[in-house]
Amino acid sequence: MKKILVANRGEIALRIMRTCREMDIKTVAVYSEADRNALFVRFADEAYCIGPPSSSQSYLVIDKIIDVAKMSGADGVHPGYGFLSENASFARRLEQEGIELIGPSAHSMEVMGDKLAAKETALKQGVPLVPGSDGAVTDLEEAKAVAREVGFPLLIKASAGGGGKGMRAVYNEESIDEELHLAMNEARSAFGDPSVFIERYVTSPRHIEVQVLADKHGNCVYLFDRECSIQRRHQKVIEEAPASILTPEMRKEMGECAVSLAKGCDYKGAGTVEFLVDDKMNFFFLEMNTRLQVEHPVTEMITDIDLVKQQILVARGEKLAFKQEDLQIRGHALEVRVYAEDPRNNFLPDIGTLQTYRRPQGPGVRVDDGFEEGMTIPIYYDPMIAKLVTFAEDRKSAIDRMTRAIDEYEISGVATTLEFCRFAINHEAFVSGNFDTHFVEDHFKPEYLDVPQIENEQALAAFIGSVLLSDATAAASQNLQKPITSQWKINRR
């Protein structure tokens, strides 16, 4: 493989290209009109505009990308994450054109991309599942019958897709009618498929995922685990590796389950098996992401393995150069996603120009980004600016290093999630490891960001207590706060 087309944009495109350059592989960028001056476009050996800013007219148009691949002579395509990375039709077209997809087969994508098919595969491989419906549910009466069997609370989830779309929590039978209709309509709108399934709502869940890597010769290993429980709108904001709550025995069991699942769908390349862990430390299969994850850097830091390089080697047909017993965890890594979002205003996107942009530096600090000072965050795509990663010999040191790195990161012109991330990683719940996916709802209010950087936990607790009391008093007196105008709306005018 001598030339790779990167079918993506931003930080992940740039990150893939850097590994390609180290491997003496030429790179081809495809870009929309909005990304004409982006860093990844300048970094690539060749670059081709494929359409207007909208992803539906550029990054998601299979024919345009394949045309560029053929014209440029690319013999491989790396899809990154998002866009076409889990599109089985894209994988199949590349195969027909004789172009190697740096990723799994269309078959693996189809099996794991459909939640019901994925559950069936997990069941066959002996991977624990959350109790729920055996198949798709489209009838109200059937849904009610399943709900009674599963018990409340429960979740209605879209069979196709992810990212929290088509997902509804139901706490009693009286509301299942409305919630089922809402979930099915949202699934139909987002994925073109109204099919849903029902499963028990795991209380106090932890989101733990396992990185797997498989070659074309039957070898498959797990590269340990990541904790991804700090989320907003069912999407991750902070990740760490390894997960702090797992015992060596549980880590091994989850890793072996992930490998079994990968083998069950004949998986090739890098993939991630996601699990929910309940408050009794039972784990259940959630889904498999058949691509490189956003948070892959934390796994790279604790294993010293370049996952993109491994993806390319697997696509070339090479065997894995290591076995499971060769792998070991070293140190601890944290990643915070730096989004152009306003945590003071319900994490709404805050698109604008990076008037100031200075990255943190120093030992154990890694920044994966695709921007520089003076550039504008496009309104058309995910508003992530960068991934800030720290690595240290232990978890506490990694947290301390991340705090320093966040303080050193200078960004002006847009609101970012940096303040929230600093608050979160220094919160007693996070530091102690006693948190779950409800962290934002349980522990965060925008007012908490206004307190000076209080290192004394008692002082912080007192401040939070005073805020809560103030809120209660205000509510009792019906003293309503003036609505905040969204910067997102302002910038769209």
Please describe what this structure looks like.
The protein is an alpha+beta fold. It folds into 3 domains: 3-102, Rossmann fold (3-Layer(aba) Sandwich); 131-200, Dna Ligase, domain 1; 206-439, D-amino Acid Aminotransferase, Chain A, domain 1 (2-Layer Sandwich). The protein has 17 helices and 20 strands. The protein has an 8-stranded antiparallel β-sheet, sandwiched between helices. Strands 3-2-1-4-5 form a 5-stranded parallel β-sheet, with helices on both faces. Helix 1 links the parallel strand 1 and strand 2. Helix 4 (88-96) runs antiparallel to helix 5, helix 5 (106-113) packs across helix 6 (115-124) and helix 12 runs antiparallel to helix 13. The N and C termini lie far apart (46 Å). Residues 476-493 have low confidence and may be disordered.
Topology:
Blueprint: E1 3-6, H1 10-22, E2 26-31, H2 39-43, E3 46-49, H3 62-72, E4 76-78, H4 88-96, E5 100-101, H5 106-113, H6 115-124, H7 140-150, E6 154-158, E7 168-170, H8 176-191, E8 196-200, E9 206-214, E10 220-232, E11 235-241, H9 248-264, E12 269-277, E13 283-289, H10 296-303, H11 307-315, E14 332-339, E15 341-342, E16 348-349, E17 356-358, E18 365-369, E19 384-392, H12 395-408, E20 410-412, H13 418-425, H14 428-432, H15 439-443, H16 457-476, H17 487-492
Parallel strand pairs: 1-2, 1-4, 2-3, 4-5
Antiparallel strand pairs: 6-7, 6-8, 9-10, 9-12, 10-11, 11-14, 12-13, 14-19, 15-16, 17-20, 18-19
Helix pairs in contact: 4-5, 5-6, 12-13
